[in-house]
Amino acid sequence: MVIKPFTVDLDKPLVFQVGHLGEAYNEWVHQPIVSKEGPRFFANDYMELLTRTAWWVIPLVWLPVVSWLVSMSFRMGLTLPQVALAEVGGIFIWTLMEYVLHRFLFHMKTTGYWGNTIHYLFHGCHHKHPMDGMRLVFPPAATAILCVPFWNTFRLLSPPSVAPALFGGTLLGYVAYDVTHYYLHHGKPYQRLTQDLKRYHLNHHFRNQSKGFGITSPLWDNVFGTVPSTKAAEKMSNQ
């Protein structure tokens, strides 16, 4: 008896299907479907709603938090130059986090049912449907949960007065990342810098998905040798 490989039905909610792909999941998820119409994730309408986030929600939610964190450091006695230095340090920390998370967590290979399912929710869905604008930025509720261990780490490793501003800078870097990421997919850049960033990122999606992990900057790709070839997805970058 020949067992047919599992086939995903794109007309049905996807999340609880993709786990059945097993070892075929990695190949399937890296064959992008270029459409601004995103798939349905869950049969339950409430669960479905939680997976959809407009890009402007990110600065609306998190920039006040950044301001509050900065004000905490001021109230604890830091001067303006000290707060500014902590903010810049936090942004720099984010650039490394952006690279490490994207390369080692979001691009980890999975084969089991739950591994595939969780990976699809975190990042696989973005590679399968890269132009789905409502699932491009990270939902604030999920970000808030992930912030807890990072905040505790910052408090443990830095002075009490520095930790809020340093974490605020990291959070500010995250906001810049998510907004930039959305723009690279859906904006039409006219400046050389943003044009190059868009070409660089779309090259990661449509040409070489095992390199080019930096979104806001190729800095750490250069450091760790994961810069892709100079040929990029020119056609996609002009859309």
UniProtKB/TrEMBL annotation:
Keywords: Endoplasmic reticulum, Fatty acid biosynthesis, Fatty acid metabolism, Lipid biosynthesis, Lipid metabolism, Membrane, Metal-binding, Oxidoreductase, Transmembrane, Transmembrane helix, Zinc
UniProt-listed PANTHER family: FATTY ACID HYDROXYLASE, FATTY ACID HYDROXYLASE DOMAIN-CONTAINING PROTEIN
Protein name per UniProt: Putative fatty acid hydroxylase
Transmembrane intervals: 54-74, 80-101, 136-154, 166-184
GO biological process: fatty acid biosynthetic process
Gene Ontology MF terms in the entry: fatty acid 2-hydroxylase activity; iron ion binding
Pfam family, one: FA_hydroxylase
Subcellular location: Endoplasmic reticulum membrane
Membrane topology: Multi-pass membrane protein
Domain (Fatty acid hydroxylase) ranges: 90-226
Necessary cofactors: Zn(2+)
Family under the similarity heading: Belongs to the sterol desaturase family.
GO CC terms, sorted: endoplasmic reticulum membrane
The organism of origin for this protein: Rosa chinensis (China rose)
